[in-house]
Amino acid sequence: MTYFVLIYILTYTFLLITFLLGGYSRLKRKNMEKGNYNKIKLEDLTVVIPFRNEENRLKGLLSSIQNSESHPISYIFVDDHSLDQSQSLIHKYLQGLKFEIVKLPKGTFGKKRALEKGISIVKTNYVLTLDADVVFETNYLNELSNLKECDLTILPVQYEHKNYFNGFLQQDVVLASLMNVAISGWKRPVLCSGANLLFSKESYLKCIKNSNYFDLDSGDDVFLMRAFQQENLLIDVHYKNKLSVSTSIPEEITDFFHQRLRWIGKSKKVGDKLSNVLAFSQFFLSVVNWLIIITLFTYLQLNQFITFLILKNAVEWACTFSYYRDINKLNLWVLVPIYILLLPLTNLIIIVSSFFVKPRWKNRLIVQ
Question: Are 129 and 84 part of one and the same domain?
Fold first, then answer.
């Protein structure tokens, strides 16, 4: 049994070091490469922000825009049939700045159509899409001007939490982001967030014309990324905090649950074989991992089992430390082994629920 434990720990270490640390290191080197390339210019950038009934969440974003050290050529807000005072709030906060508010026509709704409407009146070569509930640092837009021109640039989104329990629930997002960064280093990204996405308008129009992007209400982000990939366009992935925006994770467990159901619905419909293989492999390995732990608990003496857990936890901490440090989430890093242990259970609950529960967004039923 001691020989089996040793083989297991060595194999587990090899897999995590090769995939996570190896991929992360490759992407990190790529992001640090210097060369002669054209950079994004703020005077060639328009920010498009769709919103629906965001009166209680808009203030953070508007304050971030107000306090920003620099600005793009314009901000375009697209109203998806709001019934609150969101528009009045925008006018109040952004006096003196160049912005525009457009409304979706009657019979047209949803984030994808809101983005399409906003992008249709953009006059610059580049578009940055933000969610209405994000915030960013004063130098965020300046940092964007250091990026090289690219068809699509996937930028980081940080999920903030008010207590440690909510932070623990956030672990799936952080670990998924780490996996996405790692696979991007080896091959290509499988995830992105429309809350912080930068792309060429010309490339966007080309992609949505030739894809099934509008077939579903949800999936403004991963469906768009897949459309860019299918056109073999250039995609960059960045993870550093200076390029990130922040948003709050759902405080209510039901909102958290519906958010995860929306995400898994996107994954099922987007048709990305690499993403599906990774998801299946992660679930399969986590179940095998769980079964091995139960078996060892049964056969090992208590001191041997504790030694095994310490070694396993040490491997997981070592292979995730760099990423959690770089995104300033070391307070969550200490919980990584616990969450990995619970991962099969949480995944199973969400997967089974996806067959019976229809997720909602902005008080609308999501068609998936």
Answer: yes
